[in-house]
Design a protein that fits this description.
Blueprint (H helix, E strand, L loop, with lengths): L1 H28 L4 H6 L5 H11 L5 H13 L13 H36 L4 H14 L3 H15 L15 H35 L2 H8 L4 H38 L5 H10 L3 H29 L8
Helix pairs in contact: 1-12, 5-6, 5-8, 5-10, 6-8, 7-8, 7-10, 8-10, 9-10, 10-11, 10-12, 11-12
């Protein structure tokens, strides 16, 4: 188990390094001059040269990359080309909002998907199982932002139960924080829960036909206890894989949902930075999102060995 952790950690470090190079080079080859964007079209050549030197973009790409990564390792992502403010503290604040949204959305998805997916598999020959499968298929077809708009129309505009948008930090007013988080979390969680329900159903349905489950039932265990004791653990391995993919999808999907609900998360920050061509800020945000996706895959890979003992000795 220790060897597996060390190997996966080494792969994670190399993956982060490779991702940082790709992100940096991609931003470097984009057309446009950050100094020109910051100063405007009427800037003099002398002022442009001075600003390029202040930004550090008059150096070689290799030196720029080493300087940027050295700062990132210390938590310093540089200063915005547009606002001249430090990027790191903004990333920390915005990341907190996004993590609340993604965490709540994932919790809703799991709470819905595990029981409904299991029941859909157990009752796959009944009308109730077919109905659950049909509803989950409908949920898969609805984009998260459209679900958000529909939820706002019903619960914020017509019923006036919840706010249509905005953000209140939990340390200021926890009730207002929860009220503002419900609709955006539901818009993410319902859609991802529908996707996960289908995978849970498929995995549990496959497990129901395995020999070890039939053996457990032949020894006297009733169907549901046999499934709980011997089936769900084995069915969880492919479901955990999908959970990892969905967490990555939620990080990306939060970009649009944050815009719909006016949440000050990483997604809103990314769109604002792209529109103002603040490339250094975009570079930092993309790196954070990529590292987040790699960390999710790392944790999922380690969870395999926890769920399935047969994998603990595998490489």
């Amino acid at each position: 188990m220790t060897g597996r952790i060390l190997r996966r950690t080494a792969i994670l470090v190399l993956s982060v390094l490779a991702a940082s190079i790709v992100v940096f080079l991609f931003m470097a080859v984009l057309p446009g001059d950050p100094a020109q964007v910051a100063l405007g079209v009427n800037a003099t050549p002398e002022l442009l040269a001075k600003t390029r030197h202040e930004f550090g973009i008059d150096r070689s790409l290799f030196v720029q990359y080493l300087d940027w990564m050295g700062g990132v390792a210390r938590g310093d992502f540089g200063r915005s080309y547009v606002t001249r403010e430090a990027i790191g503290p903004q990333l920390v604040d915005r990341l907190g909002v996004t993590l609340w949204l993604v965490g709540a959305g994932m919790l809703i998805a799991v709470v819905l998907a595990i029981p409904f997916g299991t029941f859909a598999a157990v009752w796959h020959r009944r009308f109730s199982g077919t109905a659950i499968s049909g509803l989950s298929q409908l949920g898969v077809a609805i984009p998260a932002f459209l679900a958000g708009i529909l939820l706002v129309q019903v619960f914020a505009v017509r019923l006036r139960w919840l706010p249509s948008g905005g953000w209140t930090p939990p340390d200021q007013d926890f009730g207002a924080f929860l009220g503002g988080l419900v609709l955006p979390a539901l818009s993410l969680g319902l859609v991802q829960g529908a996707v996960l329900t289908r995978y849970v159903r498929s995995s549990v349905l496959d497990t129901l036909g395995q020999d070890y489950l039939r053996t457990a039932r032949a020894k006297g265990l009733r169907p549901y206890p046999a499934l709980l004791r011997h089936g769900l653990r084995n069915a969880a391995v492919p479901v955990v894989t999908v959970l990892g993919l969905q967490l990555t999808t939620l990080l990306v999907g939060a970009v649009v949902v944050e815009r719909v609900f006016v949440l000050p998360g990483l997604g809103s920050m990314l769109l604002d930075s792209v529109s103002s061509r603040d490339l250094l800020t975009v570079q930092g945000i993309v790196l954070v999102l990529v590292v987040g996706a790699l960390l999710v895959n790392f944790v999922v890979d380690l969870l395999y060995a926890v769920i399935d003992p047969k994998l603990r000795g595998a490489s």
